[in-house]
Amino acid sequence: MALIKLNTRSIPDDAVTPAKVVQEGRKNLLINGGFEISQRGTYTSAASYNDGTYLIDRWETLRDGVTANYQHLVPVSGESSYGFKLIATSSAAGAIRLRQRLEIPNIYKWGARTFTLSARVKSNSSNARLLMYGGSGGGYVTMTSDSNDSHTGGGAMETLTATFTTTGSVSSEFAAFVGIDNARSASDPTIASGDYFEVYDFQMEEGSHASSFENRTPPEELALCQRYFVRVGANTGTDYNFNMRGINAVSGQTFYNNEKFPTTMRAGPTVSIFNTSESRAGTPSATSTSINGMRLDSTCGSSGMGYYRYCYTADAEL
Amino acid sequence: MIITDAQYKFDSLEGVNSSVKVTIDGTEVTVPLDPANRHYAEILKQVADGDLTIADADEE
After folding, report:
1. Does A268 contact B39 at a Cβ distance shorter than 8 Å?
2. Distance from CA of B34 to the nearest CA of A (A)
3. Which of A45, A56, A234, A308: disulfide with A239, CB 3.0–4.6 Å?
C-alpha cells in the first residue's frame, strides 16, 4: 500500500476534513476552559472576592472599580460543561473579568501565528466580551476578526469569537480574558450593580475559525491544572489522615521528610501547610520547596513513637 | 496581595536560606527563592519599593 503524506497545514481552516481533525490533537490551549476543576474549594454559593484572587483552577478573578460576587455554575440541562459567573454588587466605572495567563515560552516558539478565542456567554451587559492581552509592547491584542467578540446584553446564551495574530514578540503577559470591560480601551465602562456574565466552554485554538469545544476528561484536565496548583487533603474525613508520617521521636531532634508533588510544577511553588496534628513530633514546616517536591521538617517535643499529619497546597500559578 | 511578617527560613542541612516564611492575605505560607514564583516576585518588588522587610532567619 502506498503511503500518502498529507500536509494538513495546506488545508484551509474552513475546509475541515477527517484528516485534519485527527491531527488537531489537544486544540484548546486554555486549561480548565470548561471550569470543572476546582481544587481550592467549592464555590457554588455566591460570595464576594478581592481583585486578583484564584478560585477555580487556572482562572484569576479580577475586579476594578466595583465590588462583585463570583459563583461556580454546575451543568444544567442543555449545557455541556460547568461555568463561572461574576456579578457586580456596586455601580461605578470599572471591570469584572476572568483571566488565564499562558506560559510565554511556548508562544515565542510559535512566532507569528493566528489564534481564535471562543466561549459561550450569558450576560445582561453589551460590554461582556473576549479579550487577549499581550501584544508587542503590552496592552490588549488588536483582533483581526472581532465582529462577534461581545455580547448583545440580551441575557441569552451567545457564542462569542475573536481572532488575533501574534507578532512573535509577546509582552511579559500573555493572557485570555472574558468579562465586562471596554474593548482595548484605557477607560473602564460604567457598570451597574447586577450586571453579570456567565462563561462556559472557553477555548483558544490555532487558526482563524472557532470549532466545537474540546471536552477533556476530568483526570486529564486535573493533571494539566496540577502544573500550577496542587491541593492534597481536605479539612475533614479520610483525607485528613492521608499525609501521615510515623516516626520514632527523639526529643529536640528534627526529622526530615520529602513530599513529592503529583507532577512537575511550573515553578517552585508557594506552600501552605494546614490542618496539622501530631503526637511527640513537632508541627511540620516546609523548609525547602522545588518544582518536584518539598522537604518537611518536624522537631520533636518528646521521645517515643509518634506521628504528624497534614494537608497542603502548592501554588505555582503565573 | 497583602504581604506581612516576612522572615527567611534557614535550611540547616544545606546551610543556606532556602525560603521565606510570610503571611499572604492572612495565610502563613512558605515561598521559595524562585523568581518565577509570583509571590516571591511580589516580595522582591515590595522590598525594592521599601514596603516590606525580610527578617533574618532564626538562629539554629
Report:
1. no
2. 6
3. A234
